[in-house]
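Sample entry (91 residues):
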Amino acid sequence: MQTVTQALKLLKRQSELEAAVRQPGAVRITEEQELHVLGRRLLEFPEASQAVIEAAHALRRPVSDVTEDEVERWATTRISLTRFLDENFPG
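Predicted structure, serialized as tokens:
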């Protein structure tokens, strides 16, 4: 679950930076540069990042409000449902 923790942390920071960039005021060059770095780091955790995003979507909450435990529970439920469907409705 370490990768989910890292992906969640990066996605939350990305959300904070995106909000900061949209604020009126001075040019946010530092924030924009950090956003690019975060984007590259998130590529290191594609499955974990996708799991966090899908869990947030399923819970109808922003990524910044989702916890690691919620992502884990969502993923476990999804796996259980997939197994159930595969066993009971093959093909």
